[in-house]
Amino acid sequence: MMVTPAILTALQVGYKKNFQDAFTATRPDSDYNRVATTITSTSASETYGWLGKFPKMREWVGARAVKDMKSHSYSIANKDFEATVSVGRNDIEDDNLGIYAPLFQEMGVSAAQQPDDLTFGLMAQGRSELCYDGQYFFDTDHPSFDEAGAATAVSNVDASGLGTNPWWYLVDTTRPLKPMVHQERKKPEFVSHTDPNHSDHVFHNKEFLYGVDARSNVGFGLWQMAYASNAALDGDSLDAAIEAMRLLKDSNGRPLGIKPSLLVVGPKLRSQANKTVKVMLGDGGASNANYNAVDVLDTSWLT
């Protein structure tokens, strides 16, 4: 088979379809969208100064009480990502092209799953990565202020497992802004580098390049929407986490209305998580008070 512009165009169309079909089929089943809000980015980075305030309703007496956005300057800088597959000129000439279709399908799966990898990777680092208030996302001393400006320390982490147990996470996913932020500047785009007359790579290596590139990143939303624990996962530890989240208050001393709705675990805790909230009867036949208290997300992206 001669390598002609028509052949290269046909390959471009076919490989792009392989990629796009796999991407489209995989993305709806991604785990990240259960815990992250996707924000469209329009620049190299985005600053989320508004994270410092929950917009709470109050009785309107006198003038409006304007809640200024706290200037925490929490920013998420977009990063570049890519994946590339080379197609040998000899394979085109020998009509040996069927072997490449699965590679471009896998590229589509990988592009669709990348937000999972980024989101849960950052969630697992939440005990050592800063969020908008200058504290670690999961920390024992988040500053909370009452109406008079008095500060108290609030915790959204339980490390009583002393490093011997896997970490699990309880999150509120009932609001428009979820605990994590998936910031998307450029959706994954299929690209090619195949012009034999103007490509040094094609000339020197006898390879045509096809790939995908994207710009995005992930960050933290409101720490109040998430809780981390490595205590043994059971009814008591889950109760403690639920209580800690539901007792959070705003600067006026009113409940924030946090509703823990999703228990996030890795494969090591899948069975225990289901036993804790998905089994109607506990050991000895006693009723499980936490039956269906929250949903369970068992994700392979948490190790």
Structure description:
The chain is an alpha/beta fold. It has one domain. Helices cover 25% and strands 25% of the residues. It has 6 helices and 13 strands. The chain has a 5-stranded mixed sheet with strand order 7-11-8-12-13, with helices on one face. A 4-stranded mixed sheet has the order 1-9-10-4. Strand 5 (142-145) and strand 6 form a beta hairpin. Helix 1 (5-26) packs parallel to helix 3.
Sequence of strands across the biggest β-sheet: 7-11-8-12-13
Strand content: 15-25%
What summary fits the major beta sheet? 5 strands, mixed
In angstroms, what is the radius of gyration?
24 Å
Overall number of strands: 13
Report the structural category. alpha/beta
Intertermini distance = 48 Å
Order of helices and strands: HEEEEHHEEEEEHEEHEHE
Uncertain residue ranges: 62-72
Oligomer: single chain
Number of helices: 6
Helix content: 25-40%
**Tertiary shape:** elongated
Provide tags for this entry.
303 residues; alpha/beta; five-stranded mixed beta sheet; four-stranded mixed beta sheet; 25% helix; elongated
Task: Draw up the topology in text.
Elements: H1 5-26, E1 36-40, E2 45-47, E3 75-77, E4 79-88, H2 89-93, H3 101-124, E5 142-145, E6 151-154, E7 157-158, E8 168-171, E9 180-193, H4 200-205, E10 207-220, E11 226-229, H5 235-246, E12 262-265, H6 270-277, E13 295-298
Parallel strand pairs: 1-9, 7-11, 12-13
Antiparallel strand pairs: 2-3, 4-10, 5-6, 8-11, 8-12, 9-10
